[in-house]
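Final paragraph of the annual report: two paired records, presented back to back.
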Amino acid sequence: MTIQRHDTKARMSRAVIHQGVAYLCGQVAGPEARNGDITAQTESMLARVDALLKEIGSSREQLLSATVYLKDGSDVAAMNEVWDAWVPEGYAPARTCVCAPLPSDELKVEVTVTAAVSE
C-alpha cells in the first residue's frame, strides 16, 4: 500500500494520495483576498485549488467531491456564481455546502476537495 503525502507539516499535509485518489486539505483565499468580498475570496480559493491540483497531477475535470464551508449562508448565491463558472461543464463533483464557523474572522469560505489523480 502506497500513500503519498505532499507538503507535510506537523499538523497536516496539503494533499494525500492513495490508490489514485487525492484528498486536499481545506483551501481558503490567499492573503491578497482575505479582506475581499465572497466573490474575491471564492476566486482566490479556487485558484489555490487549481494550483494544488496541478501540483499533484490532477485537474478540475477529475474532481470527485467537494465540501464548501460558508461563514454566512447569505453568500451562497454569490459563491455559486463563481463556482459554476469554475467547474467545467459536465464535470461537476458531488458537492455539499454548509454554514460553519471558519478559523479566522476575515475568512468567508473554505473548500475541501477530493479528486482522481492521473496515472
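The closing record of the year follows.
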Amino acid sequence: MENDKIVILGAGESGVGAAMLAQKQGFDVFVSDFGAIATQYKEILEELRVPFEEKQHTAEKILNAAEVIKSPGIPDTAPIIKEIKKKGIPVVSEIEFAKRYTNAKTICITGSNGKTTTTMLTYHTLRKAGFNVGLGGNVGHSFAALVATADYDWYVLELSSFMLDDMHEFKADIAVLLNITPDHLDRYDYKLGNYAASKMRITQNQTADDVFIYCADDPETLKVLKTTNVSSKMYPFSIRKKIESGAYLESNNIHINIHLNDELTMSISELALQGKHNIYNSMASGIVAKVLDIRNTSIRESMGDFKNIEHRLEHVAKISGVDYINDSKATNVNSTWYALESVGTDVILIMGGVDKGNDYNMLKDMVHQKVKAIVCLGKDNKRIHEAFEDDVEIIVNTFSAHEAVQVAYHLAKKGDTVLLSPACASFDLFKNYEDRGNQFKSAVKEL
C-alpha cells in the first residue's frame, strides 16, 4: 500500500475542513496546530475521530506524510515548513486539495480590498438567479468542508494571496482581481512585486475558455499584467475611461457590456453599496453575472437589495445626531482610506492595533480633510501619533473598546460620524477583528 498519510497544519476553518474531506476520501489524516485549537474545531475533530495535536508540531508525526495541507496563516519561513520542504514532501493549500474532489465550476475573487464584499455580492446575485451555488474560501465555510458535505454546481470563493501561494494545479473558471495595494508585505520580503505576482496566480492554468476580470484603473495590476501571460478572455472595468468589452462608468451610470446587444445600464444611486470603491466591486460582480448570462433585471435587483457583511462599514446606530459605523474588518491602511472616502461628514476616527509595517502617508490627505480627532485603540500608538500629529488637533490613547467609544462620544458633535476603521490587526487587545467589532457595537449600545 502506498503512503496515504495526509498531515494538515493548522486547525482553524481551513484545516478542519481539509480534515473532513481527507477523511471522507479515505486518507490517514493527522492534524497539527502550533497554537491552541478552538473548542468548536476540537469538537469536530473528536467527532470525526481524527488524531490531532495542539501547541506543538511533532516532527516524527509530520515528516512521514505523503502530502501536507497548510493553513494560509502559516508562513513558508516556519521551521516545520522548511523541514517538510527539505524532505521534498509536497505542500498544498486546502483550496488546491478540495478542487480535486469536485467538478463544480469556480468563481475566484482576490484583491487587497473589497474581496469579501464582492464575493458576497456575487454569491447573492447567483443565488437569486437560481444557481446551485456555494460560498467559501476566506469567507463563510472552507472550500474543503463544502466539497465534503454539499453538492454545488458553482462555488464563489474569496482567495487571499496566502491561499494562492500554495495552489499549483488549481484553475479558476472565472477569476477576479480587484486591486493590488501594499498589504502583508512582511510575508513577501517587503516587495510589492512579489505580492503582486502572488495575486496574479489567480490566472494560472486558465485557458481561452476561462475569464479574467480586472480593474483597468489599478496601476499595480496593469504593471504586473505586462509581465504575466494570461490566456483567458479578459474583461476590464474602469470608472475613468470607456471600456469596449467589460464595464465602465459614464455620467453616474454603470455600463456592463459583454454581449454587444445586451448592455446592462444602472445608475449608481440604485446600488445598495455606496462609495467609489463599491462602484468597482459592483462592476466586477456585474461582469461575472453577465458572463453567466444572468438576466439584466435579475442583476439589477441583486445589486439594489444586497446587504453588506458585518464589520464592513456596518451602520450601528445614530445617537444624538451622530452616526456610529463599525468597520473593524479594515485591517490595513487602504481599507481605512476607503472607509473615510465613503463617509460624507466630519469624522472621529477610532484606529490602531497591531501595525503590519503600515505606511500611513496615503491616509494623510484624507485624514486632514475629514478627521477632526483620532481615538487610538491599541497597546502601542506611537506611530499613529507620529503620522498624524500635523493633520489632527486631537489624538487620544484608549485601551478598550468601551473607553474608545466613551471618548469618541464626548468629542463628536451633531452631524459627525464616529468611525471604527483601525487600519491594523486586532490581536493586541482582542481575539480577532470580529471580537473588536462586537465590543465596539456593545459599547455604542450602552451610550
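The chain has 17 helices and 20 strands. This concludes the annual technical report; the extension proposal builds directly on these records.
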